[in-house]
Structures are given as structure tokens and as C-alpha cells.
Amino acid sequence: MAIARLHGGPLDGQVLPLESPELDQLILPYSEGQVVYKRAGEPAHTGDGDGPTEIPFRFGEEEQEITPGDDHHPGA
Fold it and tell me: I need a labelling partner for 17 at 20 to 30 A (CA). Which of 4, 36, 58, 65 fits?
């Protein structure tokens, strides 16, 4: 089993299970939008007796949810 340790952004300090340790980024729901965390290093704790493999991810960006009314401009 592998885990993602999140650094920076709104989910700083969170630890999440990873189904695929090969992922380069995580797109996670947050509030009304999404946040993107990008892989930020090599796996740690890869031995048999030192716990789950841990992969660091650093906050990259926040994406706002797109709603049907977003394409309306004032005065249109």
C-alpha cells in the first residue's frame, strides 16, 4: 500500500491512500471546486518493515467549479 502526503494549499498535512503509486498528480474535490496536487519527490519507506510507502505531493492549483451561468457577461 502507498500513501500520498499533501504539502501546502488547503489540504496541507493530509494523508491519503494511493491506489496507484505511479500517479504524477492528484485532482481532489474541495469546497465548490477542485484542488490539484503534483508529485514532489521520490517514494520514502519502500522497505518491507518500515510502514507504507509514502509519496509527497505539493499543492499546484485550485480549480473553480464551472456552472451553467458562468458564460453570462454583465450587460449582455
Answer: 65
Q: How confident is the model at residue 63 (pLDDT cuts 50, 70, 90)?
A: confident
Cα–Cα distance, 62 to 30 (Å, whole number) = 9
For residue 26, which of 56, 52, 1 has the smallest C-alpha distance?
A: 56
Q: How many Cβ atoms are within 10 Å of 15's Cβ, its own excluded?
A: 12
At 12, list the grid cell: 496541507
CB contact at 8 A, 58 and 37? yes
| DSSP letter string, 49-67 | TS-SEEEEEEEEEEEPPP-
- Percent of the chain that is helix, strand, coil (3-state, to 5): 5, 45, 50
**What's the predicted TM-score (pTM) here?**
0.76
